[in-house]
Amino acid sequence: MKIFEAINEATKILSSSTTPLLDAQLLLESVLKKNRIYIYMSRDRELTDCEIEKFFDLLERRKKGEPISYILGYKEFMSLNFKVEKGVLIPRPDTEILVEEVLKNLKDKKNPILVDVGCGSGAISISIAKYKEDALVYSLDIMDVPLKVTKENAIINDVEDRVHVIKSDILKSLDKTLYGEVDVIVSNPPYIKGDVIPTLMKDVKDYEPYEALYGGEDGLYFYRNITREALPYLKSGGFIAYEIGYDQGFEVQNILKENGFYDVCCIRDLAGLDRVVLGWRR
Predict the structure, then answer these.
(1) Where in the chain is the domain with CATH 3.40.50.150?
(2) What is the pTM of this model?
(3) Mind giving me the DSSP string for 8-34?
(4) Which of 59, 95, 152, 237 has the fewest Cβ atoms within 10 Å of its own Cβ atom?
(5) Tens digit of each residue's pLDDT (9 = 90 or more) over 80-96
(6) What is the pLDDT of residue 277?
(7) Checking phi first, is residue 165 left (phi over 0); if not, alpha (psi -120 to 50) or beta?
């Protein structure tokens, strides 16, 4: 079987995917350990029996609904490479807006201290540390897999000396010596309502960690608790930055206002949907 024949067959097998051709190309790149240009330029190359077997094994996993990023074992985010595996939420392009807003507001801040609550793969923590080279970041999560993966990704991206990974239920295990010292608390917390989770796409609801999706019956559990626990840690003039669901802008802004935050605002994504909420500590 030649490369172009394998791609054509794979596209048919993955017809239920939203991106069958792209998925097929990515999986074959992974098997051959070659890039997209090689796939195009070598379309008449004969695949070995071993390569064909590996390729169709991966296709079967994708056909069953397993996310492509879990199969490949990585995901690009903020032009950086992140290891991902089952047990961590796959980074989304929309979350780049959250990181960009934090970096924009820290542009002139020297040696800022940040806390990322619910770090997952470490995409937020590590991206901020990578692009704000004097930042010190504390990455918190209650689950063991995210803590392990964040440590590995910090090493992959050469920021392990400035990203401290801590097992914590929200901020409860963060050192109290940081009271009044933190410049930013950032989080993309679980925010899906309980009755919405069954309606999510199969590759999300059946494969990504439930703990990274479920935000309580109204989706606001973590916003309330992170905001309350953040108050003693944030310095005056420090801020909270949240990623939110498209329909949560009003409620999350109110949570911050009720806790004394000022200049609370909502940032929209490229689709015009509410995506990030910011608020500053008095």
Answers:
(1) 77-280
(2) 0.92
(3) HHHHHHTTTSSSHHHHHHHHHHHHHT-
(4) 237
(5) 999 999 999 999 999 99
(6) 98
(7) beta
